[in-house]
Amino acid sequence: MKFRTKAIHLGNERDAQTGAVVPPIHVASTFVQHQAGEWREFDYSRSGNPTRKGLEETLAALEGGCGALAFASGMAATHAATMLLRSGDHILAGSDIYGGTYRLLHKIVNRAGIEVSLAPATDLTAFAQAIRPTTKLIWIESPGNPLMSITDIAAVAQLAQRHDCLLGVDNTFASPVLTRPLELGADIVMHSATKYLGGHSDVLGGALVVKDPELFKQLYFVQNATGGVLGPFDAFLVSRGLKTLAIRMLAQCETAQTLAEWLTNDPRVTRVLYPGLAQHPGHDIARRQMLGGFGAMLTFEVAGDYAQAKRVAESTKLFQLAVSLGAVESLIEQPASMSHASYDAAARAAFGITDGLIRLSIGLEDVEDLQADLDQALQA
Ligand SMILES: Cc1ncc(COP(=O)(O)O)c(C=O)c1O
């Protein structure tokens, strides 16, 4: 089966009893057993739920994994992956990552005695040098957030293998439509399902997908023991979103490419960060690694300072001023004051997250309308 067929048919089998083409949402928290101590497939919804299982089957198929686990949010999924580690272990993360991941690693995970450091994953030499004998997990995003940096996932996977550590890739921005990290050698794929997978800004969710059954067992143990599972109604919404994921993603990529090219030629804009532009430093890797498009996130910098970027971000009418991304409606935000406010100011400065940056999540509206909206906001 090809991608779009899998997204619609796998994990979405019709209901045998009624013939309903959409499987029912199973809301039961507990399941009757035939005998004491003899467990059937489902016993308690934290340990397994049929609706969640359907979504997990679809996700595993789309990412090319042996199994997937659906969580209550992207952060719950990332946290579960870090719970594979113990005190004294080290996590090396790329420096262009979601602000909430930065906060989780530096302000929660470190409390368990796990060391954390960041290095630019785009610079393989510097990244390799940052690996320590205690490094057990490498965590990257590509495209990165908010600078849209492109990391060579296959090269980092080889690095991780050489140093005997796991590679986790937050694939939220690319989605499995554009990039499948497990096929490139990664061990864990993580998603904020809140974004492209759900696709409609109406659900919060997360997922981990792996290709090694033993690693799946370990992560399932963590999930069941700690309980950050996705609820059945939310699992249904993500499953529904997945059915149109490929079509949405490719259309949104096309609009993003058009807008990136237009912004590049605008004198009011000092820098456009979009991997689909030939001048983007990661363009060649992106052409190899991304399938069918360069993503629907784009960042640009306006001339001027914090106040000017804030003014532009507050002046759009169609682009709504909000964090989050990946849905049908376009969003605009200022990373320094919004998505990346949880970075320490010094870390923001060190990693190039300047005050003049504006990040766009390109939705499904007509490109002409989005361009006109940006044009009037830049005028402001
Ligand atoms: C790239 C990325 N990873 C992880 C997350 C966290 O996901 P959630 O908000 O679903 O917990 C986000 C949320 O914005 C994100 O953009």
Structure description:
The protein is of the alpha/beta class and 380 residues long. The chain has a seven-stranded mixed beta sheet with strand order 1-7-6-5-4-2-3, sandwiched between helices. Strands 8-9-12-11-10 form a five-stranded mixed beta sheet. The model has no long low-confidence stretch (mean pLDDT 96). The longest helix has 20 residues, at 245-264. Helix 2 (50-63) packs parallel to helix 9 and helix 3 (74-82) packs parallel to helix 4 (99-107). It has helices at 3-9, 50-63, 74-82, 99-107, 124-129, 153-162, 175-178, 213-226, 232-242, 245-264, 283-289, 306-315, 345-350, 367-379, and strands at 67-71, 90-94, 115-119, 135-141, 166-170, 188-192, 206-210, 269-273, 297-302, 320-321, 331-333, 357-361. The radius of gyration is 21 Å and the shape is globular. It has two domains: 3-242, Aspartate Aminotransferase, domain 2 (3-Layer(aba) Sandwich); 245-379, Aspartate Aminotransferase, domain 1, CATH 3.90.1150. Pyridoxal-5'-phosphate binds next to helix 3 and helix 4.
Number of β-strand runs: 12
Major β-sheet profile = 7 strands, mixed
Structural class: alpha/beta
Roughly how much helix do the residues carry, as a percent range? 25-40%
List all distinct small molecules, including ions and cofactors, that are bound in this structure. Answer: pyridoxal-5'-phosphate
* Binned strand content: 15-25%
